[in-house]
Structures are given as C-alpha cells and as structure tokens.
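Researcher: Re-running this chain for the archive, since the previous output was lost when a drive failed. Same request as before.
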Amino acid sequence: MTLWDLALRLTSQWYWVVPFILAYLGVIMTILLDNKNPAKSIAYIMLLALVPVLGLVVYYFFGRDYRKQRIFNLKGAVDSPIIESFWTDHRLEFERRFERTEKQFGDLIAPARLIFNQHQGVLSEHNKITLLINGESKFPEVLRSLEQAKHHIHMEYYIFSYDDIGKKVVDILMRKAREGVEIRIIIDDFGSQKNRKMVRRLRKAKVEVYRFMPVTFPFLAQANFRNHRKIIVIDGRVGFEGGINIDERYINSGKHRLYWRDTHIKVEGPLVNQLQLQFLLSWHFTAKMKFPFERPYFGNEFETPGDATATLVASGPDSPRPYCMEAILAAINQAKKRIWIVTPYFIPTDQIITALQIAASNGVDVQMILPGKSDSHVVKHASLSYIRPLLRSGIRIFFYEKGFAHAKTMTFDGQVAIIGTANMDTRSFYINFEIAAVIYDKKLCEEVDKSFLNDLKQSKEVTFRDWSKRSFYNRLLDSVCRLLTPLL
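Model: Regenerated structure tokens:
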C-alpha cells in the first residue's frame, strides 16, 4: 500500500477528518489572534492552505510562542529591584560618562544612549578590548585565561563541541574544578545536541552544567528561542564575547574543508561586569539559582585599564523591544562617512533596509561583505533576494570567496564598532537570545577596518549590471526562499 492509498483510506473515515479540520481551523484562529508580524502570519496561513498536513507540522515545531511568556516572566525580571536601584544610585556618574564620550564621538553616542535609557546597559570606561580573528587567535587566549582562573569560570555557548578543542577546554575545566574553582556552564540544548558524553564527564567532575531549554527528542526540537550567545567570564576580571563557538572548525587547521572566517573579542575592565550580569541572568533562568551582586562576581578593581569606552546590548524573545536591532539602527542613522558590515546571514527587516538606503543616498560609504559560501541553502538564497535594491541605492556588496564569512562586525565612521553574536536577520533580532558589544575606541575600529579590507581581498564585488543578468531560475529560487524565511 502506498502512502497516497493510506492517506485516502484515512480521510475516507469521518472520525479522522473531523478532528483534523477542527485542529486546522484552531491553528488558523491562533495565528490570527496572536497578532504576529503580518508577513509571518500570512506565510503560515498560506502554508496551511497549500499543504495542510505539512503546514500543521511546521507550525507545531517553528511557529508556536507558548514558551515566550514563561521565558519573559522567569528570565527578564530577575533581580529587577536591585538593578533599578543601581541605575538610580549611579545615574549622575553615568550621565558624566555620556558627556565625556559625546565630546569625542558626537552623535555616534546614540546607540549607547538608547541602551542606557532602556535600562539595558551602561557606558563603562577604561576597558581593554582585544580583537581576536578566527579560532587561531581566540582559543590560545581562552585556554591561557582559563588556566589562570582562581575563583570562578562562567561559560555560556550555543555550540560547545566535544572535539579536539572542546576536549582541551574540558580538561582544563575539570582540573580547575579539582583545584576548587567554581565552574558554571550553560549550553544551548538545540545547538549542542551531540555532547552528552562531555556533559556527563563534566558533571562527574563536579562542574555545574545546565542545558538551556532542554529538548527531550533532538529531532523534534523546536528551533525557536535558542541561546545563541557566546560568553566566558573568568574571576569577574576577564571576559570573551563574539561569534566563535567552541568548535575546531574555527581553527582552520586543514582538518575541515571549509575555511571559517570569524571575529571575537577579549574584554578586560569594567565591561566584564555587564558580561557577568548577562550570564547570571541566564543562569538564574536555566539553573534556578541567584547570585549576590558583590565581589568577586562584581565590582572588582581592574589593574589593566585601557582606552575603550563600551556597553553591551542583549536581547531575546523576552525583550520588550528588539534592542540589538535598535542599537544597529541608531548607529546607522548617525554615521556620516562610512558603514562597513560583515554578516553571515542577511535577512533584514524593512527598518534596516531603509536605514542603509538612506545612509547611502546621503553619501555615506556603505559596504557589506556577505558569504559566497553558506551553511544554509535556503538562507543564502533568501539573502540574495535583498541584493538588487541595495545595489540600486549605491551600496557596495562583496561576496567572501575564501570560505564561510561567519563574523558579525560593523564599524561606523571608523569610531564605533559593534561586535557580537547577532546576525543581521529577523531570527537574531526577534527570536534568539543574542549579545553584542558597542565599542567606542578608534584604535580597535582601525583593527576591525583593517580586517575588513583584508577580507575584501578574498571577496568579489557584485555590480548592479551583473546582478541584473542573473537567470530567471536563480531569481525565482531567491524569491521562493525569501517567502519561506518567516517560517524559519
């Protein structure tokens, strides 16, 4: 008997048809009452109308927001009285920092001001921020810093692979645990599905490991509301943040065919306190444990001050607004000379598209590096559907050809950099938990811009004339994939 014959036999029985129709209509009513983004709602309803059974399955795994309110209640409001009193008690000092930074950076202070006014982060001065290009630069620094830990190690990762580099990290963590160092790890259960052995080994060594939003059956896991952050905090003094997961693919040792181009930062200074806060908020949600706002977790005296002023922006499905996107928009709107962007996934909102087009029309040098090779066929083609209007607006676009451009970096007028985990897409802005540093440091921006220029040497620019010659098939494929993106 074929599947088609089975389907006909089942649907011929009324006691199968009636419950299916009721479920079908119930899902459509739920979509309408949720008042989601109209494009997303229409996409789901069209899918349900064209392929009802598949539509129900896709909506079940990707479309439901039943966890969102619970996440907001448990994660977003943690210790809010303590945080609010901190804002109130130190507001005068924060305002003085803004005045000093504004004198040097002018209107580019806008993203930091936006973050502060929403009580999402504060400007911190005298930070030392080190740019780390690829895993070849990141992992030696991470391993060295882990070896120096005396009191605690906190780690929060989307992907923590138990491969060659993961085993090196685990060996250090286990040894440090035996020395009495407190170790707490959060790993996303969707991004790190294949490391059950590693987790058992760590827990046996008395390392506290928790899975963010655990999934019982990985192949049935919901892809929404994942923790896409990559954070390390050591002794409340040293931190790491950026786009590089714990995975040997980022080292480019020749073991893997695809070259991975990515960017991370090492943070020393008071900005580490904000990284610590974000980790502990996630820890409270995941492990159901609170921490005191005191040394050695917070408020340490930093012996190696630098020249960078910076703040953090973090957002997720628990956020009242898409703060990562709003910080980027604020920076785009204030740039006067140039905007240089590297992003692996480009499925922008209308606000981002409009802001970039306005900037280019006002004479700002807007350049973007996108991956020529991608790890997602659908996302790649959906991204390509946005290229034509950007090129028409005068925005220059390059495709990275050496490998996969996985970095998430932006610089504005060579004075402000945004480096983090957030892609320039709707999933990062609205669905996943993300984090990024907004850094005011001309020296660091010079380094980021230098890496951008080096990446241009490995990239190919596309012109509006060449892009207009793309085949009908490719343009149709791009458009179809773009229609699918609200479902992903």
